[in-house]
Structure formats: structure tokens, C-alpha cells
Amino acid sequence: MFRYAVKFICGKSDGSLVAPGTYWTAINVRNSGSNRVAISKRMCIALPSEKPGPVTRTFDAALGPNEAFEIDNRDIFGHIDRPGDFAKGFVVIDCATELDVVSVYSAAGSTHQIETLFLERAPYRRMTDPLADLVPVPDANQSFCKRNAKGDLVVTVKNQGTGTAGPCTTRVDFGKFGVVDKPTPALAPAPAPDSTVDIAFPIPFGAFDPDCEFQIIVDVNNVVSESSEGNNRGNGTCIG
Residue 195, SS3? Predict the structure, then answer.
């Protein structure tokens, strides 16, 4: 696994954090290989006063041979869902193969003309430590609608990776009927007996209209480092 931590600084600053002006970041990502590759990315906000900022969920993408895409100010603000018109932090990009990742930074001052332009190639970090891989597990019929005697939805969470998964939060999103979060304990790597846990989620009133549709999101707050972030979700329907 190759990981790129790419600095971003975006938007208009009043001078309280960095020099007054407007800043742009354009992160160009290219697949230089001969096969299509899956890519995951997340945004980590850096706050002042040595205060950790929020981390977004993981967003999936893919590139064919020699294809490229760009992550710019509009994309970053769209992903971080943060009020205000200025943000800085890191875009973290993971891929099973090496990529070309080049950032273009520019800034304008009171003249509103470009005053600074800088290019930087992002180095990669090879992730060799054992990593967890959390997934929701369907039943033998590939259905996520598993219920107990009380009628609660039972979600099975499994760590199919090679590293231990620390405690996290599993969410079931019932759409307009609400969201239910439940703590998920630390899970050992498979095939250990304690690599899997069943968690009961009460189904909100009215969710059967007539059927109950839902989405399961394991590690909804992205606190567990995983070998794959693209398999944490599962969509299901319980027939009313």
C-alpha cells in the first residue's frame, strides 16, 4: 500500500492564520501503470493552537492506465463540509500501486493577481505494518437484513485484515427515519474467534414504509487505519 499525505491550503485568509490573501491548491493524481487502480482519499483538517481537526470519511475513486484527475479547492471544500471560506490540512491518498502525485499551490494578494506559484511532488510512504480491514458481513443469502427475537437489526462486523482494529463506531443510516450509532469493540485479526462481533440496532418507528431500507457504515468516524477503506459499507432492505 502506498500512502501520500499532501498538504492543502485553500480559500481566503483574513490574516489571522496565514498572510492575508486568497490561496489555491490543485493536487494532480496520475496512474502511470498499465492497469486500472482503485484509489481512496480522505481530508484531515489542521486546526491552530496544536488542536487536532476533524477527519472526513473516505472517498473512493479509480484511474485507468495513464489517466489523471485533480483535487482542487472546490473538491476539498465539498468533502470537508466545514463552514467558512478558509481551510488547511492534508489530503491523504492510498493506492495499492505507486502514483504520480503533484501539487500546484498559488496565491493572490490585494491585487487579486497571482503572486506565488509553487509545484511539489508528494513522496509516498509504504504501509508495511499489519493493518485491519473492517467489513459488514451479510448472511448466507448475501442479505444484511438479520434480526433478533426483539426485532432489532443485527449487524455483524468482521476484521478480515492482518492487524488489530481498535474500538470504533458502527452506524446504521435509516434515511429519513434516523441514524443509529453503536460502539464497536476492538477486534483481533481473522480468523481469531474475537475477530467478529454482532451489534443490535433498534429499528426506528415508521422505518417500514412498507419496507425498511438502510445503509451500514463500519468505522464511520475513520479512526481505524485499514488496508482498504472502500468496503466499510453495506446496503440492505428488510421486507415489511
Answer: helix
As to burial, measured by CB atoms within 10 angstroms (0-12 exposed, 13-18 middle, 19+ buried), residue 157 is buried
Distance CA(226)–CA(85), nearest Å, equals 31
**Spatial CB neighbours of 15, under 8 Å, sequence gap ≥ 6:** none
Q: How far apart are CA 56 and CA 93, in angstroms?
A: 12
Contact 133, 161 (CB under 8 A): yes
Domains in the chain, please, with CATH?
2-126 (2.60.290.11), 134-238 (2.60.40.10)
Give the integer Cα–Cα distance in Å for 108 and 124: 29
Q: What's the pLDDT tens digit per position in 183-219?
A: 999 999 988 889 999 999 999 999 999 999 999 999 9
pLDDT tens, position by position, 146-181: 999 999 999 999 999 989 999 999 999 999 999 999
Q: Look at residues 180, 184, 167 and name the one whose alpha carbon lies nearest to residue 207.
A: 180
Q: Kindly list the distances between the CA atom of residue 29 and the CA atoms of 72, 95, 152, 211, 228, in Å, as whole numbers in the listed order.
A: 11, 11, 44, 42, 19
Count of C-beta atoms within a 10 Å radius of residue 12: 12
Report the distance separating Cα 182 and Cα 185, nearest Å: 10
Place of cell 511532488: 121
